[in-house]
Amino acid sequence: MTSGSYAVPTVLFSRDHLPSDVAARRRTGEWVRIRRGASIAAHPAGTDAHERRDRELRAALVALSATLGPHACFSHTTAALLWDLPTWGTSSRIHVTSRSRSSVRRGAPVARHVALVPDDERTEIRGLPATTLARTVADCAMTSSPAEGLVIADAALRSGADPAEVAALLTRRSGRRGVRLAREILACADVGAESPGESLTRLILLAAGFPRPTTQLEVRTHLGTFRADMGWEEWRLLIEYDGRSKYAGAELETFMREKRRADALVEAGWRLLRVTKEDLRDPDVLVTRVRRMVRGPIPHTSRPALRLP
Question: Which InterPro entries does the entry link to (predicted)?
Answer without folding.
Answer: Restrct_endonuc-II-like
